[in-house]
Amino acid sequence: MRTFLFDALFKGRATIPAPGPDAAALEQAARALGDRARRRLGRSLAIREIDAGSCNGCELEINALNNPVYDIERFGLKFVASPRHADVLLVTGPVTWNMREAVLRTYNAAPEPKWVVALGDCATHCGVFAGSPAVVGPLADILPVDLHVPGCPPPPLEILKALLGLMEAQA
Amino acid sequence: MSTALALADLLGERTAGPDGYVRLAVDAGTWTALAEGLAHARHELSALWADAGVMRMALNDAQHSLRAIVSLETDAGRYPSVSAHHPPALRLERGMRDLHGVQPVDLPDSRPWLDHGRRPGRQDAARYEFLAAEGEGLHQIPVGPVHAGIIEPGHFRFTANGETVVRLEQRLGYLHKGVEGLMAGAAIDQAARIIGRMSGDSTVAYAWAFARAVEAALGWTPPPRAVLLRAVMAELERLSHHINDVGAICNDASVITINARCTLQREDVLAVLDACFGHRLMMDRIVPGGVAVDLSPDGVGRIRGLLTRLEETRAEVGRVYDAMPSLQDRTVTTGTVRPELARQYAAGGFVGRACGRAFDARKTFAYAPYDRLDFDLKVRTTGDVDARLLVRLDEIGESIRILSQLLGRLSPGEIRASSPYPAAGEGAALVEAFRGDVFVSVRLGTDGRVAHAHARDASWFQWPLLEAAIEGNIVADFPLCNKSFNCSYSGHDL
Asked: What is the pLDDT of residue A40?
């Protein structure tokens, strides 16, 4: 344990300099949000993650946002355990028929105002799972989506930039 | 009197195909005798699946180094159930019945598994009945499918008496995406991309197993450099998850310091992978015939540097864990798996190896390049959360050893062999993913496309043991147990 503490004291920060918001995401989010809820939430967002059918690749990269390098909470972005506490639903995967109801129920459990982010190629256009009868379709088929983040999976830095874009747009 | 038949007696002197599997068609009597042989531990169940009206079963006999895929023509879909004799086949049989309409006769549990009755045209409003637990003062705790953390969906139904779990029943299948259906008729390269997304955390292992199966079917030989690079990727994938799991287990016991250190180390691995292979998780980097990207000399240097840092982290995390009785108080004797259960279910990976099952596809059915590498199979015997954590720490050390050998043996050369003429054929492969052995079987059509492919994740035989492991533990220890198993939902849900 001593080594951990000494490292923390002497090795300097593990974090990287903060990235700016992604221009495309900012524009997309600003368009989606309009005047709907600007300045309603201040500079913080509570995020509820939902896996609607992902291969867990996106989950690995979302989890990475919590590591000391990206340290997402320093931006006021926080993953929460319940949709009741959430401003943003971050959804991964193509929506499977078996998850459809759970996704809708989770969405309905989140209070207004709320935003939906479709994370990864699968949530955007079903990725390699397009055309399967076990899959409902992309997220936008069942929920209003405010922001799409492409990638298979999107690297943490890209997810972070997109979320910052969402926050800038609504701030 | 038992009619159990041992695989070794059935196979006799038959020779295996290039993939190491003996293939033979059997009648219903032999099929059932083999199922009874499973129940009597004469051999182990590796996979069970349906392919165009034929039931197939992959069986392993590690003691005699035998592997076989036996096929049984169904009688218009009907065939004698294996799980009637050998419970570990139960979920596989329920799943295959849902997907392919085959009917296992005398199936002990007739409830659906992967089919939740939601698909248009196949809707079924019938309520899924969980198994009963009767007794005074029992209450149920339903959890999921959407969980509190950033993890995959699945439903856990706990029946508890106060704090103590009396029964856990899992209901899975929420992530069923129809991968077998998508691969049927797909071009080989497309099928490789799909199977690389069976379970994103094991993308390298799946891609490798698929590539080996296709190569066996076509008589396609990947260049030596590609074989070494595949193992480099597979070991780095293993390291990235093992170190992360160690941190995550400690995190579930509220020791966030260790978790912070481990996630930092994982990020270090992924950044090196991104620099070396152009993708943090190495998706689509292993392809049939070889690998898609080469490793530059600069990349070799980066990986060597990474190995030094990983070894430091492993040693320090091990020391900290060792010196923290309050943490071990949570992990030691928690979530114990009985060795006989691990043997019965042929549980792979750290779940099996933490309770004495010395099985590792890299050793037991060694494939290139592991057959020429010097490393140890690490086994513990207590079967608890502590043992599963320590097996991971041990294996990190072994993977570092493996990687330094691999990097030393890399010599310049081709990384992908040109593809042979399309031909019909069959191939199968067993690859050790970080959580256990992944089995992939492929049947190719004459047009060179995939006619059928089946993948069996290690989780199929680990999930049921989690139900057993939590029994008698307190509800609050479930996250710890679950994390120490770290089963795949997506890989299981097909």
From this structure: 55
